[in-house]
């Protein structure tokens, strides 16, 4: 059994539970931080200190521990695409990409190389064996459920993955850690993007060129402000727009890097009746995908009912039962049938009924100074 250990309490308890269950456990942590790690990056999860703590926990539990070098894959699959998405006017979720492109894909391969039957992680997800079919279901702790981040897991990897804490609530996980005397029992959770020091906007500004452009009203094409780059905005945003008429409440409703234009409008202009997604991954047979299902378009939003207009191996189109606010390209559209995770895709664009963008002249303007 290869147990992914991050230096946090969830993976620590995972290793302990597996050992108690009689598995032959090998602890492993994926190293992502570079040799020239910047201050305030990789300081909680995925950090040198976390690796030290994971090794110490492995000693407490009585299992061997290995630090696996995945720096190059992390830069190629996570950091690079993260910046590319912002440059294209999209809002990425690097944690989804990390689980899809690096963690589960690479860990399952590594487990097979080491002769391990399973990979286990501390995710709050339930594995359900339904005859020959393995399903992922929402974790029993609704506050911690992490199925949203796992929609991209290769379907053929599902039989090899276990989630020992998926049927536990977070307080109970900490109790187990305390009972076992694990040094991570009271370790706080990581909330930030591991490779980003400080604010995302500052990180993006360091890596992407800035160019001033117009902020325009979606209904009329009227210039209502200026911006320093479409990469600094996200759909639905209403604060920090710097509009000429600041008393008017406006939301970002469309980003167009090609013309370097930020489009704003009323709240109603930011409501969409559906979405299209690409890069789909299904955890069921496509023929068995329900025509009516639940979809979650951001991690912290509730799932909503939707009708599948079209679905193929490349992507899908959905129509919401009720309009949704700020469906952001680059985020994940994650599909569910009740608690069961069915798969997902990356949101390509918002609904087809986005207000028509007026044809207006635009002159590129350099950043002052």
Q: How would you sum up this structure in a few lines?
A:
The protein is of the alpha/beta class. It has 6 helices and 17 strands. The protein folds into 2 domains: 2-180, Rossmann fold; 209-369, Beta Barrel (Elongation Factor Tu (Ef-tu), domain 3).
What does this structure look like?
This is tRNA-specific 2-thiouridylase MnmA. With 369 residues, the protein is of the alpha/beta class. The protein has 2 domains: 179 residues, Rossmann fold, CATH 3.40.50.620; 161 residues, Beta Barrel (Elongation Factor Tu (Ef-tu), domain 3). It is 22% helix and 28% strand. The strands form 4 sheets. The chain has a 6-stranded antiparallel β-barrel. Strands 3-2-1-4-7 form a 5-stranded parallel β-sheet, sandwiched between helices. A hairpin with a 2-residue loop joins strand 5 and strand 6. The longest helix is centred in the N-terminal third of the chain and has 20 residues. The radius of gyration is 22 Å and the shape is globular.
Helices and strands in order, then pairings?
Blueprint: E1 2-4, H1 9-20, E2 26-31, H2 48-61, E3 65-69, H3 71-87, H4 94-113, E4 119-120, E5 125-130, E6 133-138, E7 161-162, H5 170-180, H6 200-207, E8 213-217, E9 223-227, E10 251-256, E11 261-265, E12 271-282, E13 292-296, E14 304-311, E15 315-325, E16 332-337, E17 340-350
Parallel strand pairs: 1-2, 1-4, 2-3, 4-7, 8-11
Antiparallel strand pairs: 5-6, 8-9, 10-11, 12-15, 12-17, 13-14, 13-16, 14-15, 16-17
Helix pairs in contact: 1-2, 1-5, 3-4
